[in-house]
Amino acid sequence: MVTCIRNLVLPFYSRSIATNLVSIRQMSLTARKDNVKSLFYKEYGEPINVLQFTTQPINQPENNQVSVKWLLAPVNPADINTIQGKYPSKPPLPAIPGNEGVGEVIAIGSNVKHLSIGDRVVPNGVNLGTWRTHANYSSEELLKIPKDVGTIEASMLNVNPCTAYRMLKDFVALQPGDTVIQNGGNSAVGQMVIQLCKIWNYKSVSVVRDRPNIQELRDHLTSLGADEILTEAEIRKTQIFKSKKLPSPKLALNCICGQNALEVLRHLAHGGIMITYGGMSREPLTVPTSALIFKDITLKGFWMTAWTKANMNSKERETMFTELGTFFKDKKLKAPPHKLVPFCQYQEAVLNALSTDGKTGLKYILDMSKV
Asked: Where does the Enoyl reductase (ER) domain lie (predicted)?
């Protein structure tokens, strides 16, 4: 067992202390200077081989900067792919990994107006490097979120809920009662899709891989609001659409590809759309000619990173975060099953985040307080 040493952090600053604020900031940052821990990599490769810890100094935030203490940081497949050099979005090397997380503002520059000490923030961009205990950022690189959103939910707000939200909003004008079909129904995105469909009164059909505890998984997804959960064998022969038990899906969401996606595609209604946002099987997406000619099926792709870059300051993005934050606050959205991993034991998280069997059922989150 690795022994974790907690960082020394001075008590929270009170907003009532208006005088000597600069000296307080300087004292805090000086006290932390030798205790800022981060993971970094100098070359691409398997995370377990190329990641290493470093201790870095941190300066007082400049005029437009904010100093953040990171609290939790999820480990996503995209993070692993980035470290491997396989992801299209690559930070310059050497790099600090981590695209997602929740932090607390602990100091601000003199020109920062929209953030205050004690605010909770999430990254407002990509490749900001959240796998570290503290860092300074431009204030525009951070997005303030309500404090009444749970810390775990806030830490994973940027990627999976947003991906599910946008795919349900942007491609088909769904109406209450319409059906959405997806594979990877037990994935983090898949569970968000199920819950959002319930909130918006859409019917959801989720395809999952068979497993010894399949009934336990069915019960969990049903508790989230799933209307139907089918295994890969069951999706091949299901009659739920032909029997009119559910309307034929207008929208299909695909993160698997291969034969799995082909079976899902066959159930799309005439004029339906399949959105591909992942390829966990590492197999190509094959499409029958008849689906294009006789059913007028449309195939599109979605990448949350590209959407974020194109809509960084858009009204749509602001509305999305407000709505998702409210859903989490009101317990209409729940975080997927997860495990907090001490930052100093990051190896467990990076080894399991890219599990290829699709059955681990856990999202791994780094606890930055345990270094």
From this structure: 46-362
Tally of residues, the chain: 371
Backbone angles phi, psi at 370, to 5 degrees: -105, 85
Radius of gyration for the alpha carbons in the chain, expressed in angstroms and rounded: 22
pLDDT at residue 26 in the model? 40
Q: How far apart are CA 100 and CA 98, in angstroms?
A: 6
| CA quadruple 91, 96, 98, 102: dihedral sign | negative
Q: What's residue 18's pLDDT?
A: 37
Contact 283, 257 (CB under 8 A): yes
3-state secondary structure the chain: CCCCCECCCCCCCCCCCCCCHHHHHHHHHHHHHHHEEEEEECCCCCHHHHCEEEEECCCCCCCCEEEEEEEEEECCHHHHHHHHCCCCCCCCCCECCCCCCEEEEEEECCCCCCCCCCCEEEECCCCCCCCECEEEEEHHHEEEECCCCCHHHHHCCCCHHHHHHHHHHHCCCCCCCCEEEEECCCCHHHHHHHHHHHHCCCEEEEEECCCCCHHHHHHHHHHHCCCEEEEHHHHHHCCCCCCCCCCCCCEEEECCCHHHHHHHHCCCCCCCEEEECCCCCCCCCCCCHHHHHCCCCEEEECCHHHHHHHCCCCHHHHHHHHHHHHHHHCCCCCCCCEEEEEHHHHHHHHHHCCCCCCCCCCEEEEECCEC
pLDDT at 16 over 60: no
- The residues annotated with a catalytic role in the active site are 87
Count of alpha carbons within 13 Å of 109, Cβ hemisphere only? 15
Tokens of 317: 């993005």
CA atoms within 13 A on the CB side of 84: 13
pLDDT value of residue 80: 93
Sign of the C-alpha dihedral computed for residues 267, 270, 275 and 279 taken in this order: positive
Distance between CA 334 and CA 319 in Å, rounded?
A: 19
Q: Which amino acid is residue 334, in one-letter code?
A: K
pLDDT band at 87 (very low <50, low <70, confident <90, very high): confident
Task: Please tell me the distance from the alpha carbon of residue 114 to that of residue 140, in angstroms, as a whole number.
Answer: 9
